[in-house]
Amino acid sequence: MANRNILIVDDNDDVRQLFCDIVEMIGFAPRSVASGVAALQQLKANNFDLVILDMHMPDLNGLDTFKAIRQFDATVPVILTTGFGMDKNVREALSMGALLCLEKPFNVSRAIKTIREVVEKESPKK
């Protein structure tokens, strides 16, 4: 299953590292970036089975990043993360097709279960 590539987008170094550790623990290959702009560059250059996207980033917020992802790739599954609750941007992204939102601080075992389930359901074996 290591052929499953997960893009982690978060401006917080510790959160990015935690998600990388979780993704590796599951047996998937993480790639992490600190901004929405960098995420879009990665998506244009690589195929990903899942994007984990922080909603609050300084350069390009999560909603704008999500909209740009959808213009580029309408099928890649996206899990949102936020430390600010279910605000209007989160609700809008969910209404546009984001799968779910993990609120920070999140339960690691729930995050593992969620990531595994999403990849297995949304990105069938290649």
Short summary of the structure?
The protein is an alpha/beta fold and 126 residues long. The chain has helices at 13-26, 36-45, 62-72, 88-95, 108-122, and strands spanning 5-9, 29-33, 50-54, 78-82, 100-103.
- Please provide the count of β strands: 5
The CATH superfamily title = Response regulator
Helix proportion range: 40-55%
Total separate domains: 1
Span of the ends, CA to CA: 10 Å
- State the helix count: 5
The CATH class turns out to be Alpha Beta
The biggest sheet amounts to: 5 strands, parallel
Oligomer: single chain
Query: Element order, helices and strands?
Result: EHEHEHEHEH
Within the CATH hierarchy, at the fold level, what is the topology? Rossmann fold
C-alpha Rg (nearest Å): 13 Å
Annotated CATH architecture: 3-Layer(aba) Sandwich
Shape: globular
Write out the strand line-up for the largest beta sheet, numbering strands in chain order: 2-1-3-4-5
| Low-pLDDT regions | none
Mean pLDDT: 92
Structural class: alpha/beta
Query: Which percent range describes the beta-strand content?
Result: 15-25%
Tags for this entry?
126 residues; alpha/beta; Rossmann fold; 5-stranded parallel β-sheet; 46% helix
Tell me about this structure.
This protein has one domain: Rossmann fold (3-Layer(aba) Sandwich), CATH 3.40.50.2300. It has a five-stranded parallel beta sheet, sandwiched between helices. Helices cover 46% and strands 19% of the residues. The protein has helices at 13-26, 36-45, 62-72, 88-95, 108-122; strands spanning 5-9, 29-33, 50-54, 78-82, 100-103.
